[in-house]
Amino acid sequence: MSQGKALKSALNNRRPTNLPYGFEQLMMRRILLEAERKKKRSFVWGLIVISFVSIGMIAATIYILTYYFSFSMYLALPDISFSSQTQSWFVACGYIAVLMLALLALDGYFRNLWQKRHGQSS
């Protein structure tokens, strides 16, 4: 509350000056651009931190399972053999999954472009 009152009194007590035409709009645009950059930067840093923490937790889990509990994947899973038909199904399913992920990424990219060009925020 006191910040709002101080800001209001500072704006009311300002002296008239001869600023160039459009100065206030230019400065406001710069301030908004800098605020947007700061918001994007903090978002990216948040993603980076979350990624490193996730990778660290996965690495710690693997380390603990391997060295403290003597867990081995080779002992946990018996000798598994796949027939050629099963392997071809795995390859086909993997291909479809990668294709779907690529299409999903393209959809997100083109939606973002569409929204930027048409100014829609839905």
Structure, described:
There is one protein chain. The mean pLDDT is about 85. The protein has four helices and no strands. The chain starts with a helix and ends with a helix. It is about 80% helix and about 0% strand. It has helices spanning about 1-10, 25-70, 75, 85-120. It folds into two domains: about 15-80; about 80-120. The radius of gyration is 28 Å and the shape is elongated. With about 120 residues, it is mostly helical.
Descriptors:
79% helix; 0% strand; single chain; 2 domains; 122 residues; 4 helices; mainly alpha
Give a short overview:
With about 120 residues, this protein is mainly alpha-helical. It has 4 helices and no strands. It is elongated and about 85 Å long.
Describe the secondary-structure layout.
Blueprint: H1 2-12, H2 23-68, H3 73-76, H4 84-118
Structural class: mainly alpha
Alpha carbon gap, first and last residue: 34 Å
| Number of contiguous helices | 4
Q: Spans of 5+ residues with little confidence (pLDDT < 50)? A: none
Instruction: Profile the largest sheet.
Output: none
Helix and strand string, N-terminal first? HHHH
Q: What is the count of distinct domains?
A: 2
Total number of beta strands: 0
- Sheet-strand content, in percent, reads under 5%
What is the overall silhouette? elongated
The whole-angstrom Rg is 28 Å
The chain-level mean pLDDT equals 85
> What share of residues is helical?
over 70%
